[in-house]
Amino acid sequence: MLEKYLGQPITVTNQGGASGSIGSQFVKEQPSDGYTLLVCAETMGTYRTMNICDLGYDDFTVISPLVGDPKVLVVGKDSKYNTLQELLDAIKENPGKITMSHSGPGGSGHNQGLVLKELGYEVAMTSFDSGNDALLGVIGGQVDFTNPNISTLGGYIESGDVKPLAVFSDKRMDAYPDIPAFTETVPEAEKYLNIPYTLLSFVVNNDTPQEVVDVLKAASEKVFADPEWTDFVKQNAADPVYDEYKDDASIQAFYDNWKSVICWLQYDNGVAEKSPEEFGIKRIGE
Fold first, then answer.
1. Predicted pLDDT at 158
2. Is residue 40 part of a domain?
């Protein structure tokens, strides 16, 4: 849709590898003329602390955060747990015994396990090759629960293969209003859950001329107001983060808070190799 408002054809190249850092590095090495754009995942904020590469959000100018893909805590259809409280009680009674699947260290699902640990819920985290495999592990009864993205989960909810117990957030989803937010059961989790755990952002190199940045921002605003876009977001139950952070100050504050939550969470739990302090990332509340 950006083509429509820029009046220019856009070629999309999917370049994976090393948590997206290969594609990010490719964009960084291109001329800063606005003709090479990047849509990146949330891992951009942890490249340095995870010692993946030297890039970070401050190497780019954020045109806009885009959408979050809400995480939902689910159990299998035959699970004895029917509410989040029942699951949490079982975790408390059996520390380190209730199993949770995720797609690997440092990923959004693994981060959720770290949040549970910070809140006093010790689970046995089991790594799978992908988020989909982690979900299939729950459906197949290999593990007790997992936290998949709603974009991959909707069909399984509709088919009844899983029971959703909570949105791993401080708010419910419009598309599934009957699924409670995690903070409704655990209010003290709010400081960890006021951010999207799976986030897409639209960025360009940080030395791109301001007039080019302004053109991209203006075109993006038109996309965000287009009914075709808003319908797409709603149909996919995505979190419209772009609608909450529109000016440069609020966008900067949003990313600073995201890094404070995630980078320190990973470092304090021995997942990140480098201290966030080394990169000027403050702890929550500092």
1. 94
2. yes
pLDDT at 19: 80
Q: What is the DSSP string of 101-145?
A: EESSTTSHHHHHHHHHHHTT---EEEE-SSHHHHHHHHHTTSSSE
Q: How far is CA 187 from CA 111, 134, 150, in A?
A: 18, 27, 22
The owner of tokens 């990973």 is: 266
**Within-domain flag for 21:** yes
Residues in the chain: 286
Which residue ranges of the chain lie beneath pLDDT 70? Answer: none
Residue 130 has a pLDDT of 87
CATH number of the domain that residue 106 is part of: 3.40.190.10
Its domain, for residue 157, covers 72-193
**In whole angstroms, what is the distance from residue 164 CA to residue 178 CA?**
10
pLDDT of residue 47: 95
* Cross-strand pairs, 62: 203
